[in-house]
Request: fold
Amino acid sequence: MTQLFVKSLLCITLSLFLLACGGSKDKEEPTYSGSYIQFYNGSAVSALTYMRVVDGKPLGSAVYGGATSLVNMENGPLALGFYRQDSDNKEVLVDEVQTTLNEGEKSLLVLSGNASAQSVVEHRFKREELSSDFRLFASSVIEGDSQFDLYMSEVGVPFSEAHKLITLAYQDFTETSFWGATSDNFKLANYVVYLTLPGQTEPIFQSAAISFSFSTEYVLFVRSSAGAHSGNIEVDVVANSSSVTTYPDINESAQYRIYNSMSAGTTLHVNLEGSAGNSSDLTVQAKTLSNYIDISFGSYRLAAETIGNENLSINNHFVTLNQGDSKAIILYQKADNSLSSISFNESTLPQNYQYQIDIVNLVTEFSALELYFVRNDETLDSAKYHISALNYAKSQSITLPDDHYEILALVANNDTKLLIDRIENVEFVQGKNHIITIEKDSSSPTGYQIRVLD
Reply:
């Protein structure tokens, strides 16, 4: 009986030993048998950019501040092309990269630079099996001589106790190390990212809490904001998917602009009143789009009244302006002659090779307008870009390539289309956000007018 017990104990012990050895061996062997590529668009003057194998399959696309999903590829040599489309839907080569993919490695392709010198840089690293921790890489795609000290702390820890990870310059790409004593990898938690100028101790950027909740590789990209509120610093968090989270500075201001669509001679006085004494006043002439007004982020009460006719007013419309927001506010007169407003966020994407246009229907009697953008080689029937069912007092957006357009506004009347107005040879201004309104206008032959505002 004793011998049987000893034999059983030896068998159990040996089995546990073999299992332990097997687990250790599995951990040392490469976990990722393929090779991996991902594309991040960090060029602030870019259009939607496509990545594909040269003369081969497409591998995804990304706008500025966006990324493709992680793609599992075969090991070996690979030629990659990066393209945008021109106004004729033809491909324009942005850059081409020759690389060799290795087993277990990730190649992160990053587009950066300006319109005359865009290029794709490859960064690669060996992937690792992680458990209850994550790896953190950092890069800057802000052009020029700008450098930043990157700090990080767990949520609730003040900047004075944050840890400096690295100094970043343009196109740097470095893995950072955790300040804990046991591992270079970071423990899963919520963190705050800070940026200072090199050697300085005053943050010029502070993120909201960033949740690092997956055991994977993350990359922090420091970049400039684009579009309507350009020039501010933002941080993108890129993992192994197309989902990119963008963090503005928690102290970043917002901005807004007002369009007065009232009839000629009707001037509006506009006030935004927030908390803690934050407020903004301006006067806007009829048929005029104001300049952008910087304002602290927060929630505001919008009030407006026509000068000389205080009975035509609003005093309790609600407007929220988040950090980095750029909001357009359209003031218009309803069918009952009362004053009202429409507001929407303007695009934060580059407005160069393509434009995101916001369109507003201010014609009370038309509940569903159609708007066509017709290029030189198109007719209304063949026009690729159009908007249908634009409801009264609503806005829609459309993305258009850089080109010349004839813009036509129509409305369906039984089986007939009625032409409301048309504008020929419209070319949008590079670097600007545009708004198009359709309004009543007694001076127009049809009684309506399309207005292109920038």
